[in-house]
Amino acid sequence: MIEQVLCDMDGVLADFVSGAAKAHHRESPYLYPKNYGTFDIEKLWDISAQEFWAPIDAMGQDFWLGLEKTPEADELVALLTERVGVESIAILTAPSDDPGCVPGKRAWIRKHYPQFSKQIIYTSAKGFLAAPTKLLIDDRDRNIDEFRRDGGQAILLPRLWNRLYYGLVTQNPVQPLDWIRAHLAYLNFQISVLTTNTIQEPLTQGSTR
Known about the structure:
Rossmann fold, globular, single chain, alpha/beta, about 210 residues
């Protein structure tokens, strides 16, 4: 059974892409199919990382606090709460280098999901928290792969900027919440079978990205 869930913030609960586009006075790069599957927005805009972060950092805490929720954020939180309980969920989010980022993210969580205000972990090294009964939900391919490599369970949330973008642009597009539900059921079944097996073997993980 999945005992604890680590849920990413940006791109999963908070609409970082729209916020970044607004800060740059540009349209989202993911309006164009040629950009699907590429995570780094600065590459799509052909600017440096420093140029990408400059207007965001200039806004300080206000940028993070002003982010809108993603369309499925509330339903995702409700689903995870139903499965493992509030006390077993933490927000796992990578901070930027700007000193306003962490307080801004904390304020966003307090505003939208106060039940997690004391359950926030700030790190880019998400794999350090991996364990066989811990689940990471994230929108970045690399984070998912590293978490699995380090022994944890992980579900990649379909987004236009990751490898699951194709499922969102078909004639019958996948619904992100349906994807999460299906994979939660599969992971719980898989763990149950492995942990009740009479042959004691290490729990192995598949590798994707």
